[in-house]
Amino acid sequence: MNDVKPETDAETPAPKELSPAAKRALAEAEQRREAYKAQEGKVARELGGRGGLEPGRYGDWEIKGLTSDF
């Protein structure tokens, strides 16, 4: 007896239609991302800084396991 099932092409389900509110929310999120990137580009870069994300915003003053405090 052969228990091997024949391989069939798995049909991909049709993409779910988004509601108008969801479409507006996605468009608003995209606009916010673009505005954030534009604002981020205007900020002067720190020379010799620690790099990475702004620690004051994210609350982590740590690099490679070493924490710093002011």
How would you sum up this structure, described in words?
The chain is mainly alpha-helical and 70 residues long. Strand 1 and strand 2 form a beta hairpin. Strands 1-2 form a two-stranded antiparallel ribbon. The chain is flat, with a radius of gyration of 24 Å. The model has no long low-confidence stretch (mean pLDDT 77). The protein has helices spanning 20-42, 55-58, and strands spanning 62-63, 66-67.
Topology (elements, then pairings):
Layout: H1 20-42, H2 55-58, E1 62-63, E2 66-67
Antiparallel strand pairs: 1-2
Rg on CA atoms, Å: 24 Å
The proportion of residues forming helix, as a percent range, comes to: 25-40%
What is the tally of beta strands? 2
Overall mean pLDDT stands at 77
Oligomer: single chain
Characteristic terms for this protein:
mainly alpha; two-stranded antiparallel ribbon
Summarize it.
This protein has helices at residues 20-42, 55-58; strands at 62-63, 66-67. The protein has 70 residues and is mostly helical. The longest helix is centred in the middle third of the chain and has 23 residues, at 20-42.
